[in-house]
Amino acid sequence: MELESLRELASEATKEDKYQVYDVILAGVK
Is the pTM above the cut of 0.90? Predict the structure, then answer.
């Protein structure tokens, strides 16, 4: 069960990181 919680937290953190990466990429493209 702990793994599930950690997995959810990791997925949430990954989403945040992805958005930041996208912002950086878009900024670089412009």
Answer: no
